[in-house]
Specification:
The chain has 10 helices and no strands. By secondary structure, the protein is mainly alpha-helical. The chain starts with 13 loop residues before the first helix and ends in an 8-residue tail after the last helix.
Amino acid sequence: GFRDDKRTEPPVNASRDWWLSLSIFVVAVFAKTVVCTLPVALAIILWWKRPQLKRADLTPLLPHLALGVGLGLMTAWLERTSVGAQGEIWNLSWLERITIAGRAFWFYPLKLLVPYPLAFIYPRWTPGVHDWPGWCGVFAACLCATLLWYYRMKLGHGPIAAFAIYAVTIAPALGFFDLYFFYYSFVQDHFQYHASIAVLTLMASGLVLVLRRLDRNDWYAALLLLLMLPLAWRQSAQFKDAQT
């Protein structure tokens, strides 16, 4: 084996790595513009690792951000003009959109925590300014963000960073931008695929802390995964073929 005192860090080529990062992001954002929020998520991760951020830390992300914002807005425009996300169903006020966001924001973490029942298309609720579950969701999100920020010195920057990354990544699917799928439902499992990374990471960290406090081993986590397997098997059957 190697000796600790002889280990060396791999050589760093900042310019090469930056161009590689930008190239991969270009491929990703042209494949699916849902990744347009990645530069903001990376900025939050930088803040998590180095709370005293400097301008030089964020400057390399500006081209990524410009590309992400540009293609994200273009996709929103295409949803309206080419895909057909326009008409009475999408004529919603900002208050109605906020209530939609309040519901959708918590729908996805709850599905990750308790993935049952799952559906290819969930029932579409009727939005409205008097939708109290939506306003409760908005209040809960604001309260959660406030508490995580207030207790960041005690809890660490990780929880508020994970919360912020989830919020930023899921934002395009919360109803503020018109998507044709809203004709059927305001939520869909695949809307949260990227955003779920932050939530699952936070859940996993919390599970590890609980197991350590209980002086238990990782077999409990393995048991949890085994319990989820039948749900995953059942859900995958919905994608058996095009007709299904």
